[in-house]
Design goal:
Strand content: over 45%
Helix content: under 10%
Length: 121
């Protein structure tokens, strides 16, 4: 009923930048929180950044000052601008949202397919 399609990953040198994009589509009444998670090899999936429908954002400590999350409610789209990238940022990045579907207003937790971000010289 709701799908997330993300893009923007790739290979970048330390200190470089990438911008991830994620768009929600389907039988959407409203998208509530949207966020980005990441999972590095051998590590648990962790929250990177989250943004409410009102635009309030929170970040994992290691990315504060380097990453910026933003959204466009009219387009049901969320972005993650990543600057000053470090090798430790290497991971698969997953978009996530909580959305209410049309008619029933049932709440769903939806995940994107993941996009690889590799920071290496």
């Amino acid at each position: 009923q709701v799908q997330l399609v993300e893009s923007g990953g790739g290979l970048v040198q330390p200190g470089g930048s990438l911008r991830l994009s994620c768009a929600a589509s389907g039988s959407i009444f409203r998208v509530n929180d949207m966020g980005w998670y990441r999972q590095a090899p051998g590590k648990e999936r962790e929250l990177v950044a989250i943004i409410t429908s009102g635009g309030s954002a929170n970040y994992e400590d290691s990315v504060k000052g380097r990453f910026t999350i933003s959204r466009d409610n009219a387009k049901n789209t969320v972005w993650l601008q990543m600057n000053s990238l470090k090798p430790e940022d290497t991971a698969v990045y997953f978009c996530h949202c909580n959305a209410q579907v049309l008619r029933t207003l049932r709440s769903l937790n939806v995940w994107g397919q993941g996009t690889q971000v590799t920071v290496s010289s």
